[in-house]
Amino acid sequence: MSQDRIPLAGVIGSPVAHSRSPQLHTHWLKTLGISGYYIPMDVSEADLETVLRSLPKMGFRGVNITVPHKEKALELADTVTDRATIIGAANTLVFRHDGQIQADNTDGYGFTENLRQNAPGWAPESGPAAVLGAGGAARAVIAALLDLGVPEILLSNRTRVRAEALQSQFGRRVTVIDWVQAGNMLEESVTVVNTTSLGMVGNPPLRVPLDGLRKGAVVTDLVYAPLQTRLLIEAEKAGCVTVDGLGMLLHQAVPAFERWFGTRPEVDAGTRAAALR
Ligand code: ATR
User: Name one Pfam family in it (predicted).
Assistant: First the structure.
């Protein structure tokens, strides 16, 4: 791969038009004065392997991977980082100079950095964390929380067996709570995370009873459209520290941009505005 080529990166999904990553990376390219491009690409699963093998030949340094290709991309990669193996999905691919495709997952990093930046007093090791949902996003969040030394994760999901599967994977620091009792786990939790798609534009709201939220708890919602969800509005009223989900999207992009373009970008108010444009 020649180094004097225009550096390219992009996001592959299907559909991909809703992705905010192009605005975000393009903002960083411009503000850092890098003459590269970041391109959204709608690719079918049948074409994924051929596309991934072709992109490096055109000057691509790597791509983000979004729904529905995160698991398939992990399978197709030549090497996989430990954190992507744990999550079982890739959100970032790096096309290495030796021709190998490396799969990574920066979602857990994005989750942690978002809370570190926006809830400065957050002490995750000081008490249990309540996690709502047991999909791919929950897996990244649980791995990140365990890395931070959270003593116990109270995990609740509509489909209990999916929560139990995560408990089997992550071990005894994860306790499964019935979905109908999810409200009860909030009382002792110093961290509360919604990883379900409830509350997202076009989906029903999260209806879990929220009167148990603890004053001072750090509450975050991975949903960022809208930015203010019922969970965050109620948490604010209860005296919690609230952090919206947009920051996770911004922070998960930082290590990818750095690997592809060689400069570490900042996440600031300008970055948020660019992603919302
Ligand atoms: P992601 O990768 O974003 O986590 P996912 O794997 O499809 O996406 O997971 C979506 C999560 O939202 C799951 O926890 C799902 O619950 P189920 O495992 O029971 O499907 C949750 N979810 C979606 N719609 C829901 C609804 N109407 N009520 C409760 N939970 C819902």
Answer: SDH_C
Domain closes at, from 105, 127, 145: 105
- Interface pTM, i.e. ipTM: 0.97
CA 245–ligand 1 middle distance (angstroms): 16
- Average pLDDT of the segment spanning 197-221: 97
Question: Which atom of ligand 1 lies closest to the CA of 134?
Answer: 14
CA 198 to chain centre: 16
C-alpha to C-alpha distance for 131 and 133, rounded to whole angstroms: 6
Q: What is the CATH number of the domain that holds 25?
A: 3.40.50.10860
Identify the CATH number of the domain in which residue 203 sits: 3.40.50.720
Q: Is 259 helix (H, G, I), strand (E, B) or coil?
A: helix
158 is in an annotated binding site: yes
State the pLDDT at residue 3: 57
Strand ranges for 43-179 from DSSP E: 60-65, 79-80, 92-95, 101-104, 129-132, 153-156, 174-177
What six digits make up the tokens of 25? 């990376």
Q: Binding site annotation covers 133? A: yes
